[in-house]
Amino acid sequence: MSSISKKNKNSAFAMLITLIIVMAISFGVIYAVTTFVGIGLMTLIGFEYNSIPAVFLFFFIFVCFTIPLDFISTSILDFVHFKGRIPESFYKVLEFLVEFVLVLLGLLVVDSIMKSISIPFRTKILFSVLLYVFTSSIEYLFLKDKEEI
Q: What does the alpha-carbon distance between residue 78 and residue 87 come to, in Å, rounded to a whole number?
């Protein structure tokens, strides 16, 4: 009996370690994509910074701030949508509004904290819209194949 419980403990520990590794890798990928896409895009639309390390710190704080909020808001929206409470078209509008506000809020917070960067308000608005378009396009490309199966 003790060997079974020891196996369960080892199995649970292995699952926890695997989950932590997967989350760390996922965060790293999200951070890298957001940073490299974001640097190019935001520089084109008016983002100013004093140094490259400041940009990496900016996006690190931005990603740490927005990922949990995005996860919570998306989970709530998906739950309400899949329960049949709101139609698809209204869901998409709500999804855009929530994502837009969260990104804008993240940019406002991080811009106010960091003095080594400068983001004009129009750049914050434009980046919020473009980031939604970019992430929606990526989701569509990856989810399109799953829906056909």
A: 11
